[in-house]
Structures are given as structure tokens and as C-alpha cells.
Specification:
The chain is of the alpha/beta class and about 425 residues long. It folds into two domains: about 250 residues, Purple Acid Phosphatase, chain A, domain 2; about 130 residues, OB fold (Dihydrolipoamide Acetyltransferase, E2P). It is about 25% helix and about 25% strand. It contains eleven helices and 21 strands. The strands form five sheets. It has a six-stranded mixed β-sheet, covered by helices on one side. Helix 5 links the parallel strand 9 and strand 10. Helix 8 packs across helix 10. It is globular, with a radius of gyration of 23 Å. The two termini are about 30 Å apart. The N terminus is likely disordered. It holds the Pfam family DNA_pol_E_B. GO terms for molecular function: DNA binding. It is found in: Nucleus.
Length: about 425
């Protein structure tokens, strides 16, 4: 037998079995029939989604309406919104609620007595304060860190998945597009496909406007003939190899409304090892829950934030999490604890708010992988490891993330290792 073929067969024989279970994968439908009530219903959904978690952490049983007129301090819940401005300022800071007797009215939020706060449009907050006239809440406390649900699979299913680690840790690679330019063609994609991973996650864009300008073929044909053919060749290297593809807002074959999916491939028969997921996605790799998004949520949060941090303020849960760390950590806390893939509202990008269940992050994942223009990083935020692979606008000098998932028996407490690597320096 040919030695090269023997080595491939030998390697495949001892690779781990991988189970991938979709939790939340979106398929586009009826996105051109957006109703005027969608945004209003989305606000209601977000408030109902968060209110019980805030009650639990504050140990209270009810909220008053935001326009409740009272000289006595009370708790109320609402969504932060901008009014008469394009940027959130102290003068344009309002809250709204449509789940009680507030009747969708905007109520001014007065924060002059607060020494620390971090707001953004769309944020769900609890306010403790007074509203003497019914149209302005004078805030004494702001609460923005509710209880969250997190994946319990790592603890509960250790024995069930232990056999999947018999041949060592599970190797996961995250690599983002674009993968093509006019001079080097698909060199970056070819380079990453030279190495073998148990799970390879490819983020778009796969086919952007620069490519379509140079090809006579349709975007669907370009994807099938140039991208998919390479991936099909890759999975033939091993029986248990898996490839997950996540579309990007710049992919020309998407409808252009978040959430995104590979609509044109819905009827195409693919190899079972090639998984076309949506943007965003939630899925398990064995017992680890992964959340993925190629939309720049982190930059949106960062650019929309209204922030104040004066010293000598009393410590509370919000202060401990939001004001004792760097800006990136603060933004990541908002992303995890607001329980949404699109916490900023309204978004400057087109979003189908009717499909709000697909925008929710009901359970905090073990890993949340983002593609943002902010610096690359890895942060432990509550129960979640948040990673930014970065926005790599060209195929030159690209980097990628390697994640090693370990069995509970061999981990000594830490179940993973993460490395950020440069593609050109790959051995």
C-alpha cells in the first residue's frame, strides 16, 4: 500500500468521534414582509425575557410602571432609547416599557446623582428611583446584571461524552474570510485546509462583491465551484472530520437582513460532515455549547455606549463587573448578560425583529466567537469564554483561533486551551 495513503488511514482510524447538535439555527423565510408592529413586539419580548431574571437577583416580586408617579423610591424596568438625537447623551437618555401600564410612553431618565453608569440603546435595565411628575425618573440606582442561564452539559454529560476523548482532546479551528483576492486567489483557504482539525469552523464572507466583479459566474456557482469543492475534498481526509460554515453580512448570496443563512443551499444534498449554519448560531460540539456570529456586535456596543465612572461609589454587582475591568470586558459583559446577539436597538443594520427567538442568547454558551473590527482577544466573562477572531478585510496576513477541548478526567479543572495563530507562520 502507498505509504502516504497508509498514514492517512492510520490517522483517520484514531480520530475522535464528534457529535454536533444544533440548538438555534435560522432558515430565512418571509423576510420581505416585515410588519410595522415587529419592533414594538420585539421590545415587549426583550422586557419579558429579562424581567424575571432581574426580580431574582434583586429579590423583589414586582416592578412599577416607568411612568408611575411617586415621591417614594420604587423599582421599574425599561429599555434604554435615544430621543431627539443620533447619539446617546445625558440629555437624550430615555426609557420605555410596553409590558405594563406605561402605554409605550418615553420617560426621561435623570442620572445626575449617579457616579457610575454604562448605557446603550436597547439595553434592558432596572431603575430604583423617584418619578414625582410621571415623566422623569430620578435614578438612585441602576441595575443591568441579571441572573443568566448557562450550559450545564459540561457537568451533567461528562460520562456520556468521555468516550469521544479516548484519542485525546478535540481540536477546533476558527478561521474567517474573505478567502480570495485577485493576486493570490484562494491561498489562505488552501493553507488552512492543509492542516487537519476535528472541527473546522469557517466564517464568511465566502463570496463578496469584489469576487463577483471578477467572475462571470453567479455567486451561488462561485461558492459551489470554488469554496464547496475544496471543503468536500477536505472532509474526505477523515471519516470523523466536521466543517461548519457561517455566512457573513457581506456575502452577496444572503438576503442582507439579519439573521443570515445559506438560503440557496437549502435543497442541495451535502456531505453530512459539512454543516451550513446561520448567523448567529448556537450548537453543541459534544458537551460544549458554542455561540457564533459574524455581525460586528462588539463594535456596535462600543460605539453606542454612554459611559461614566467616578471613583468612591459604593460597590454593587454592576460596579464589580462593569467598572473594575477594561472597556472590552465591559462590552462583553453587556453582550452576555443582556442575553441577545443584537442587544443594541434599533440597529443600524437591517434586522428581522419578528424572528426574535433567533436573536436571543437564552443560554450563555461555553464559547462565544465573534468577528469584530475591535482587537483580537479572549475574555472569561461569567460562564462564557468570549473570543474575537477579528475582522480580516483582506486574505493577507490572516490569523485564526485553535481551541483544544479536553475531557473532564484529563483537564485538571480547565477544559480547554485557546491559541491565536498567524496563518503565514503556521508550521
Amino acid at each position: 500500500m502507498d505509504e502516504k495513503m497508509f498514514n492517512i488511514l492510520k490517522k483517520n482510524k484514531f480520530r475522535n468521534n464528534i457529535e454536533i447538535r444544533p440548538v438555534k439555527i435560522y432558515k430565512e423565510e418571509n423576510l420581505f414582509y416585515l410588519k410595522s408592529s415587529d419592533k414594538q413586539n420585539y421590545v415587549k419580548h426583550r422586557l419579558n425575557q429579562m424581567k424575571e431574571s432581574f426580580k431574582e437577583v434583586l429579590n423583589i416580586t414586582e416592578f412599577y410602571s416607568i411612568n408611575h408617579q411617586s415621591h417614594v423610591s420604587f423599582y421599574t424596568i425599561g429599555m434604554v432609547l435615544i430621543h431627539t438625537s443620533t447619539k446617546l447623551t445625558n440629555d437624550s437618555l430615555y426609557v420605555v416599557s410596553n409590558i405594563d401600564d406605561s402605554n409605550d410612553v418615553l420617560v426621561k431618565l435623570n442620572v445626575k446623582y449617579l457616579k457610575k453608569y454604562s448605557f446603550f440603546p436597547g439595553q434592558i435595565i432596572v431603575i430604583f428611583g423617584k418619578n414625582p411628575n410621571g415623566n422623569e425618573i430620578i435614578a438612585e440606582e441602576i441595575h443591568c446584571i441579571p441572573t443568566i442561564s448557562y450550559s450545564s452539559a459540561v457537568e451533567d454529560e461528562e460520562n456520556l461524552y468521555s468516550k469521544n476523548y479516548e484519542n485525546g482532546p478535540i481540536s477546533v479551528c476558527c478561521f474567517s474570510g474573505p478567502f480570495w483576492n485577485e493576486s493570490t486567489k484562494f491561498e489562505s483557504l488552501d493553507l488552512i485546509l492543509e492542516k487537519i482539525y476535528d472541527v473546522l469552523i469557517l466564517f464568511g464572507p465566502f463570496v463578496d462583491s469584489k469576487m463577483t466583479a471578477k467572475y462571470e459566474s453567479s455567486p451561488q456557482e462561485i461558492f459551489t465551484d470554488e469554496i464547496l469543492v475544496r471543503i468536500e475534498k477536505y472532509v474526505r481526509k477523515g471519516m470523523n472530520l466536521k466543517v461548519i460554515l457561517i455566512p457573513h453580512p457581506e456575502d452577496v448570496f444572503t438576503v442582507g437582513i439579519f439573521p443570515h443563512s445559506f438560503t440557496f443551499l437549502n435543497d442541495k444534498k451535502l456531505d453530512d460532515r459539512i454543516l451550513m449554519f446561520s448567523n448567529p448560531s448556537l450548537f453543541y460540539i459534544n458537551e460544549f455549547l458554542f455561540g457564533l456570529s459574524t455581525s460586528d456586535i462588539l463594535l456596535s456596543l462600543s460605539s453606542e455606549e454612554l459611559f461614566c465612572n467616578q471613583e468612591n461609589e459604593k460597590a454593587d454587582k454592576c460596579s464589580d463587573m462593569l467598572f473594575c475591568n477594561d472597556r472590552i470586558s465591559r462590552i462583553c459583559h453587556h453582550l452576555i448578560y443582556q442575553k441577545s446577539f443584537v442587544p443594541v436597538f434599533p440597529s443600524k443594520s437591517p434586522i428581522c425583529y419578528e424572528k426574535h427567538n433567533y436573536l436571543d442568547m437564552d443560554v450563555s454558551p461555553d464559547f462565544l466567537i465573534q468577528c469584530s473590527k475591535l482587537i483580537t482577544f479572549e475574555k472569561q466573562i461569567g460562564p462564557t469564554v468570549v473570543c474575537n477572531i477579528g475582522s480580516q478585510s483582506t486574505p493577507d496576513n490572516k490569523h485564526y483561533i485553535e481551541i483544544s477541548l479536553k475531557s473532564a478526567k484529563e483537564s485538571n479543572g480547565k477544559r480547554y486551551d485557546i491559541s491565536f495563530l498567524n496563518l503565514k507562520n503556521k508550521s
